[in-house]
Structure formats: C-alpha cells, structure tokens
Amino acid sequence: MFTVHAVAYDDEEARVIRSSRSGTVSRRILIAVAAALAPVLAGCEAGLTAPSLQWHQPAEGTAAKAADGSITISNAFVLGPPIGAVLRPGQNAGFFLWLVNTGTSSDRLLSITAPGVAQLVRLPKGGVSLKPNTPAALNGPAPTVVLVHLIRPLSGGSVVTLQLLFAKAGLKTLQVPVMPRARFYQTYSPAPAPRATPSPAGTGRSQTPSASASPSPSSTH
C-alpha cells in the first residue's frame, strides 16, 4: 500500500511538474511574441504621421476636410521653437500636414496664405498635385511648406490661421496649432533661415533697402 501510494504520488507530482513547466514555457513564448510585436505595433500607431523611420508619438495636429469633402487634411501643425523660446518676426517656420484626395478626379493645392502670421507661404514649385486616393506627404522631417518672414512672434502652444486654396475643392481655412520643438517633435527639422525680405502681397518690389540711402553729391566745376 505504501509503495503503491508512493508511486501514485510520484505520478501526480510528475504531472504537476510537467504542467508547471508547460505553463512556464507558454508564458515565455507569449512574452517573446509580445516583445517581437511591440516595434511593429508602435510603427503601425505612428502610421502616416511618422516623419522618419524612427517611431514617435503621432502628431497632435488639426484634421479637417475641404468644403466639398474631396480633400482630407490631417496632422496639420506649425513647428515652433523649443520650449521657452520664441520665433521672432522675420524668421521662418515649417508647416507640416498630410493631404489625401478622396474624390474621383485630380486636384491641386495652389497656394497657402497665413494672414497676420507670415508675409507668404512657400510651396513646392507648381503647387502640390493631388491624385485620387493617393496621399501627399508634406510631413517632413524637413519642411516642404514654409511660412516665410513671420509678422508676429510664434511660440509653442499658440494657434494660427492658415488658408489653403485648392484648384477644385476651393478655399479651406484651418486653425493650426504651433507645436514646440521638443520630445518627439525634435525629429522634425526647423525651417531654413530667411534669405531676404520677401515682397509684400500685391507688389513686385522687395522691401530690402537700397545699398545707399544718401543722395549722390553734386558735381562741382
């Protein structure tokens, strides 16, 4: 009886040990799978907002649609200075966004204006072509769209008004956040420094002063 009982106990103990080991192995497999999937899931979360191959938290920009609903605008924001700093008048600022034409015919982003914010907004030459169901990535990491010659100071946490003009979808006004260049926004490149004072709207002349402000002296004989 004692021997039989001992054998039965050993069998039960062996079953428990095998079950315990199996559970341990299963848990290890699950941990390994989770660790392997973590970068993939992180990359999926970044989605269309990632400015580089390095993952960062999705941008907290503006999302909107054009008046006729054919153009989707997402993750639109202006990149500001680092926390505690200010972009001063005369400097440039980058504007980042995604555009998707959900209509059935091609469209084009013709121009962007920033009334009360910048003298002009520079786009790629010829504007931005928007083919049906094809995203246009204007999300960096270097800015494709630049607010040139700021009229007023810009700091992180503020909001600016931008107007996007499309060839077919018409005019769309956006309230766009200015994000400080900190944390995951450090992966974005600041706008290039201004090269010269741009011409004011409606004129063909530059505001750059002439080389000599004093009149030429009269000739004496």
Gist of the model:
The chain is an alpha+beta fold. It has one helix at residues 2-46, and strands at residues 62-65, 71-79, 93-101, 107-113, 118-122, 128-130, 135-138, 145-150, 159-166, 170-179.
Task: Give an overview in words.
The protein has one helix at 2-46, and strands at residues 62-65, 71-79, 93-101, 107-113, 118-122, 128-130, 135-138, 145-150, 159-166, 170-179. With 221 residues, the chain is α+β, with helices and mostly antiparallel strands. Strands 1, 2, 3, 4, 5, 6, 7, 8, 9 and 10 form a ten-stranded mixed β-sheet that branches. The N and C termini lie far apart (141 Å). Mean pLDDT is 73; it is low at 1-9, 16-58 and 199-221.
Give the amount of beta strand, in percent: 25-35%
Mean pLDDT: 73
Oligomer classification:
single chain
Q: Which radius of gyration do the C-alpha atoms yield?
A: 30 Å
* Count of β-strands: 10
What about the largest sheet? 10 strands, mixed
Which percent range fits the helix content?
10-25%
H/E series: HEEEEEEEEEE
Total helical elements: 1
* Global structural class: alpha+beta
Termini Cα gap:
141 Å
The geometry reads as: globular
pLDDT under 50 segments (min length 5)? Answer: 1-9, 16-58, 199-221
